[in-house]
Amino acid sequence: MKDLQIFHIEHWQNFPLAFIPLFVAIDVIGILPIFMSLVEGVEKPQKARFINQSVITALSVSIGFLAVGKFVFSILGIEIYDFKIAGGLLLLVFAINDLLFSEKSKKTITSTMGVVPLGIPLIVGPAVLTTIIVTVDTYGYIPTITSLAVNLFIVWIVFLKSNFIYRVMGEGGSKAFAKVASLLLAAIAVMMIRRGFMDIVLYIKKSAS
Fold this sequence. Notes:
By secondary structure, this protein is mostly helical. The chain is 87% helix and 0% strand.
């Protein structure tokens, strides 16, 4: 019973640590202007269908990647510190690209728009998948899956209330928030690279001893 209580306490302590990197990687306010441009002119019922489709797609892809990610790593001989460094570099590129060269284009409306590009790669792209695999290794499956579910619920609410939120924040406010989120993502990327190198150093020390 005591071990179960400790497990629950540890889970709730790790939840915010797992939640924040995913929240920053998804950047729901930052992708809001893109979402608004994609669904411009779409009727309300169809818009709601696209939103549901996108969140379900994002959750399915994330859980699927979470399930097979480490198995693929073991087949390819990839260690988690390799992925931390590679993922950190990838996140850093995404963050720099968004900070310096962010230009979004309008897409054609299709019946599967909720899957592509809304679910993938708008909500869940390489940055989010990289963050998920590193987060589950650092904090465990339960905090990662819980934080993923909460983040996607936030995305669902924000998309449903997108017209109101966009009016309140304005285009300038939304873009400013996106830039701050990109800066935080760059900082998280550097942290992931640093931790990857630290893991390599520890691995070398253990191998030498």
